[in-house]
Design brief:
single chain, 244 residues, alpha/beta, Rossmann fold, 8 helices, CmoA
Length: 244
């Protein structure tokens, strides 16, 4: 993986805050942005390799839906010895996929890597042992999330899993306020100014729509997954394992 450039997208005052998009400007600094913005992100990546070693099946496909720069696929592929595995990364941002292709160059020497510029809601899921949906479902309209998860479950092989990582809400308003404060403190500790935090929050407010743990669990059950567990939570971010 290339050394990340520093995120300064919201460092200067902006007269108008446009809605957040994964454009060239964001793609150029995305690795730094997500690592400094998402508590537990580094641990999520480091354990994806362990998860992949356990659940990847020979001759199957590992999907990364909303693969961005390919960090999730890279984490899984770098230590995976399972034979005949294909990594299929899907993203609707050309800017992201161009950098993803560079980042996955070493993995493509060990495994088949396919990168497709496509809306993940149009992706056919088939012969999948693992599907990763990391910090992506939250950008899909709520009413369309169940259909996507159902198609993922249908495309998984027996014993296959979904890794679902998301920003989460809390039913208790005080807990929500406390965890939001800690999230902002996390960003400050990683060098973001109050201006950057405020402008990023305004840009993403109506684009990223989080839900509670209960909402996710009900939807996973409705999609037909047999069970699910939270394997990692840090402040207001959580990652689920959902089993076919």
């Amino acid at each position: 993986m290339a050394k990340p450039k520093k995120d300064q997208v919201y460092a200067d005052p902006q007269a108008q805050i446009d809605s957040f998009v994964f454009d060239e400007r964001v793609a150029d600094v995305f690795d730094d942005m997500i690592r400094r913005s998402v508590p537990g992100y580094a641990m999520t990546l480091s354990n994806l390799g362990i998860i992949a070693q356990h659940y990847a099946k020979p001759g199957s496909i590992i999907y990364d839906l909303g693969c961005s720069l390919g960090a999730g696929m890279h984490a899984m592929g770098s230590s995976l010895a399972t034979s005949g595995v294909t990594f299929r990364g899907i993203d609707n941002s050309d800017a992201m996929l161009r950098r993803c292709r560079e980042n996955m160059a070493d993995i493509s020497q060990k495994h088949t890597v396919e990168l497709i510029c496509q809306d993940i809601q149009d992706t056919v899921i088939e012969n999948a042992s693992i599907v990763a949906l990391n910090f992506t479902l939250q950008f899909i309209p709520k009413e369309e999330r169940l259909d996507l998860l159902t198609r993922i479950r249908e495309g998984l092989l027996p014993g296959g899993i979904l890794v679902l990582s998301e920003k989460i809400l809390f039913d208790d308003p005080q807990i929500q306020a406390d965890l939001t404060t800690l999230h902002h403190d996390f960003k400050r500790a990683n060098g973001y100014s109050d201006l950057e935090i405020a402008q990023k929050r305004a840009a993403i407010e109506n684009v990223l729509i989080p839900e509670t743990i209960g909402d996710h669990e009900k939807r996973l059950a409705a999609a037909g997954f047999s069970r699910d567990e939270i394997w990692l939570q840090c402040f207001n971010f959580a990652s689920f394992l959902a089993f076919k």
